[in-house]
Amino acid sequence: MVRYGELSTKGKNRRNFIDRLAFNVRKSLHQFPNLVVKAHRDRMHLQLHGEDSTAVMTSLKKVFGIQNFSPSIRIERDIEAVKEAALTMVKEQFFEGMTFKINTRRSDHEFIYDTNEINDLLGGYILKNVPGIKVKMKHPDLCLRVEVRVNGIFLSSQTINGAGGLPVGTAGKGMMMLSGGIDSPVAAYLAMKRGVEIEMVHFFSPPYTSEQALNKAKELTAKIAPYVGHIKFIEVPFTEIQETVKHDVPSGYLMTVQRRFMLRLAVLLAAKRNGLAIFNGESLGQVASQTLESMVAINDVTALPVLRPVVSLDKNEIIKIAQEIGTFDLSIKPFEDCCTIFAPPAPKTKPRLDKAQEYEARLDIDGLIERAMAGIKISEIKSGETFLNQQEDEFAELL
Ligand code: ATP
Ligand code: MG
């Protein structure tokens, strides 16, 4: 039994949210063919029909838009059968000195017993058959929930936290600038958590960056994919732009101008693919390119919102999330991405917009952008896919 998250506050859009959530749940549980998903206005029911509940719950925990859920069993509307099932459930979880209570709700008022009677009948039966157990109304160790519905009586005793957030796809699409670092995968996760469908945009610069750096970005995408099933990955060749910028732009402005190109390309991709915003992994003050002055000088190339989900998080806080979502160990593997290699020794922490524009005007901006766009490759990455070559991977760890 699945309880919705913030959906309840969404008024008219509620049905869309529920339908989208049901769609996402079916997609992420597609490997369980017998599972049946029923999305009601107030709850969603997943009927297992023999599928493994532990495996289903593991996948379910990653679906955004779910507040929490309870593994439940359905019993015929026969009080004797309910007594036996309740007793079994309590015995399974019993420990010395355990307290409990029964909490009954009826959505079917035709049932012969009312809620108080059911509480008494079940409570009495458990007290009689489980020596040592006590009733406690406030904060018992075990709260046995009983729901009387037309189609049966449902028992549950556990509530498991869901991923929270909003169903992915209810907030439109955004292009996520994904590097191989720690921050951008976390930003991607947080964007998805607010319901945004993301497509990854990754810039790479062969031969300055290795195949493994590209593979690392793909594998990071695969780590985040369980939250949505699969994610589009767009690789954009960036070598010509970086070489040109390095050659023609004063070193203090290398980084600013490179970033302006990256953003232009991401914006073009958004326009072609119905993206409404650009997301990146910038955190305020973390490095030279992440000052407000720098953001002004880079953001200038577009009017599209550039959203930075980790902008106000400390590095420690970002790392904590990276560990929770399982991207951290991969992010810290030492494959250089394109920015590290072309990083100037002393980038300006307070670049000026007029200077950036002036230096950039010397370049064939349109031609560079056009050629990069001509070289893009788009693939679809599924959860759990691996891309890093094991041997090179081990070798890199020795470095
Ligand atoms: P991250 O840990 O995400 O790499 P960072 O702290 O290393 O971030 P930068 O290298 O300055 O910061 O990058 C800032 C942001 O620019 C990244 O979070 C990412 O969104 C984007 N970015 C940087 N390099 C790339 C790349 N090669 N491809 C796509 N986006 C990139
Ligand atoms: Mg980086």
TrEMBL record:
A GO cellular component entry from the record: cytosol
InterPro entries: Rossmann-like_a/b/a_fold (IPR014729), ThiI_AANH (IPR020536), ThiI_fer (IPR054173), ThiI_N (IPR049961), THUMP_dom (IPR004114), THUMP_ThiI (IPR049962), tRNA_STrfase (IPR003720), tRNA_sulfurtransferase_ThiI (IPR050102)
One GO process term, biological-process aspect: thiamine biosynthetic process
CDD domains documented for this protein: PPase_ThiI (cd01712), THUMP_ThiI (cd11716)
UniProt KW Oxidoreductase keyword: no
One Pfam family in the UniProt entry: ThiI
Keywords, in A-Z order: ATP-binding, Cytoplasm, Nucleotide-binding, RNA-binding, Thiamine biosynthesis, Transferase, tRNA-binding
THUMP domain mapped to chain residues: 54-159
Catalysis: reaction(s): [ThiS sulfur-carrier protein]-C-terminal Gly-Gly-AMP + S-sulfanyl-L-cysteinyl-[cysteine desulfurase] + AH2 = [ThiS sulfur-carrier protein]-C-terminal-Gly-aminoethanethioate + L-cysteinyl-[cysteine desulfurase] + A + AMP + 2 H(+); [ThiI sulfur-carrier protein]-S-sulfanyl-L-cysteine + a uridine in tRNA + 2 reduced [2Fe-2S]-[ferredoxin] + ATP + H(+) = [ThiI sulfur-carrier protein]-L-cysteine + a 4-thiouridine in tRNA + 2 oxidized [2Fe-2S]-[ferredoxin] + AMP + diphosphate
Subcellular location, principal: cytoplasm
Localization (cell): Cytoplasm
EC class: transferase
Function: Catalyzes the ATP-dependent transfer of a sulfur to tRNA to produce 4-thiouridine in position 8 of tRNAs, which functions as a near-UV photosensor. Also catalyzes the transfer of sulfur to the sulfur carrier protein ThiS, forming ThiS-thiocarboxylate. This is a step in the synthesis of thiazole, in the thiamine biosynthesis pathway. The sulfur is donated as persulfide by IscS.
Protein name from the UniProt record: Probable tRNA sulfurtransferase
Organism: Liquorilactobacillus capillatus DSM 19910
